Amino acid sequence: MSLAPAWGAAVTLLALALAAAPAAPDAPPGPPAEPPIAAPVAAAPACGGTTVGQDSGVLQTPGFPGPYPVPLRCTWVLDVSHRQEPSIALYLTQLYVLSGLTVTQYAYYEREDFHMGEQLLLTVSEQTALTSRVVVAHSPYLVVRLRGQRLEGNQLRALPHLLAVFGFNVTWEARDGHPPPPARPSCSASACSLAGSCLASADFT
């Protein structure tokens, strides 16, 4: 006796039963997907700026003597045009960056695309960073620019004290006189034999 026909009939009945069963209702739509939350963007540290009508001050990289964020573009403008016969002395007391720093004087400076009488006074390099102590501008405007793309390999390093210092911390003063008075005696990292920090007292300028 063969069971093949009975088995075929059972499969046919099961298929008909599944076809006749009511379809399951669609699930209700869920809440719309929330858009992804953007990660907060850290604010850039204060860097650069314009100083007008002052006679002395300090310029430094963000977080000095610690590392500063890169890439970095900073421009400091010193305007001492309020003086009769102005000059500006920039004392490079703590200069650790080895490239990307320039010092330029102007007969007149309003903004990057509007100025007159430009003269480059210093381009910092591995050589000039060790030999320069002071920069003197014989004009009412001095502009210091820092353009940094990287940190490591671009900072002064010497055992045992100068292994974790970055950027610069320099002092400036405005003066009168023609010819201008000589700059004050100053120190620098190289003048200290790379053995420590050269510091200016609060009343230095």
UniProtKB/TrEMBL annotation:
<feature type="domain" description="CUB">
    <location>
        <begin position="47"/>
        <end position="175"/>
    </location>
</feature>
<keyword id="KW-0732">Signal</keyword>
<feature type="disulfide bond">
    <location>
        <begin position="47"/>
        <end position="74"/>
    </location>
</feature>
<dbReference type="InterPro" id="IPR000859">
    <property type="entry name" value="CUB_dom"/>
</dbReference>
<dbReference type="InterPro" id="IPR035914">
    <property type="entry name" value="Sperma_CUB_dom_sf"/>
</dbReference>
<protein>
    <recommendedName>
        <fullName>CUB domain-containing protein</fullName>
    </recommendedName>
</protein>
<keyword id="KW-1015">Disulfide bond</keyword>
<feature type="signal peptide">
    <location>
        <begin position="1"/>
        <end position="19"/>
    </location>
</feature>
